[in-house]
Prior knowledge:
Tetracycline Repressor, domain 2, 12% strand
Amino acid sequence: MARYQVGLQTEAKIIDATRSLLAEGGLEAATLKAICDRAEVRSGSFYNLFDSKEEAIIRVVRESIDAVDPDPGGGVPTPSTTSWMPTSGSSRRTRNSPGST
């Protein structure tokens, strides 16, 4: 098996271990030792792939957010794209089209 594939598998094991530890016990349970023990890797292998435990945790959180909403903030009206325009005596929120005033 190529080194690259082994690295990908190790990375996946670390992420899976981090995810399960976070789910089971939160941040307190996701220690570096617990992550490495669960993933069956040594800390040196961990640090070859991640700069810190926090980096692995942030990756898990980011993947979880992306699974729920792959484009957070996308399609949500912002003050620059939304205006309040009265229509037929009622207020209605409308999205300005590009180039409109």
